[in-house]
From TrEMBL:
The gene is nuoI. This is NADH-quinone oxidoreductase subunit I. Residues 143-199 are annotated as: Disordered. Its main location: membrane. NDH-1 is composed of 14 different subunits. Subunits NuoA, H, J, K, L, M, N constitute the membrane sector of the complex. SUPFAM superfamilies: 4Fe-4S ferredoxins.
């Protein structure tokens, strides 16, 4: 052991002192995530506002962490929440258990469940990290109607998946939706029914 060994060791320390700092100025400056980043889940809607979730519970079965709880309910002609026979009456995701693997997304047959770029899920109350359906549902876009309501894009569930986007662009369907949607005070009049699902 030479007398300069200690100096060589400190050389590494001193060299790092002058390197560029890589610390992010979070939360004042938020880093932009990659487009395919998997963050918080979202339950998507059809262009007329009906929910895409059909309450099949496949996402709950696929979850290796047992973080998803779903109870399906039956649609009726008077109260319709989705185009199918059933809908997700109760839907919860426990983010204390979720590992963000995305297996629930792959299991969903209707693309109802997707993951957003939102990553700020920290909270000081454990109960607030159990997200229910109201917090997971995509917001209503202009031209969408809050369920329950009748099917606007076709006569049956197949119409929504086969020709739903094309039907939403038809002027007669847009006019019908405009006439039947009770406008919220302060909301802008919808110019067209949106055709893309919320991210």
């Amino acid at each position: 052991m030479g007398m300069f060994d200690g100096v060589a060791g400190f050389g590494v320390t001193f060299s790092t002192m002058f390197r560029k700092v890589v610390t992010e100025d979070y939360p004042r400056v938020k880093k932009v995530t990659a487009p395919r980043y998997h963050g918080r889940h979202q339950l998507n809607r059809h262009p007329d506002g009906l929910e895409k979730c059909v309450g099949c519970e496949l996402c709950a079965w696929a979850c290796p962490a047992d973080a998803i709880y779903v109870e399906g309910g039956d649609n009726t002609d008077e109260e319709r929440f989705s185009p199918g026979e059933r809908y997700g009456a109760i839907y919860q995701i426990n983010y204390l258990r979720c590992i963000g693997c995305g297996l629930c997304i792959e299991a969903c047959p209707t693309r109802s469940l997707t993951m957003t770029n939102e990553y700020e899920l920290a909270d000081d109350d454990r109960q607030d990290l159990i997200y229910d359906k109201d917090r997971l549902l995509a917001p209503l876009l202009p031209g969408m109607e809050q369920p329950p309501h009748p099917m606007r894009l076709g006569e049956n569930e197949q119409d929504y998946y086969v020709q739903g986007p094309e039907m939403a662009r038809r002027p007669d369907v847009q006019d019908q939706v405009r006439e039947e949607i009770p406008m919220v005070s302060g909301a802008a009049t919808p110019d067209a029914v949106p055709t893309q699902e919320a991210r």
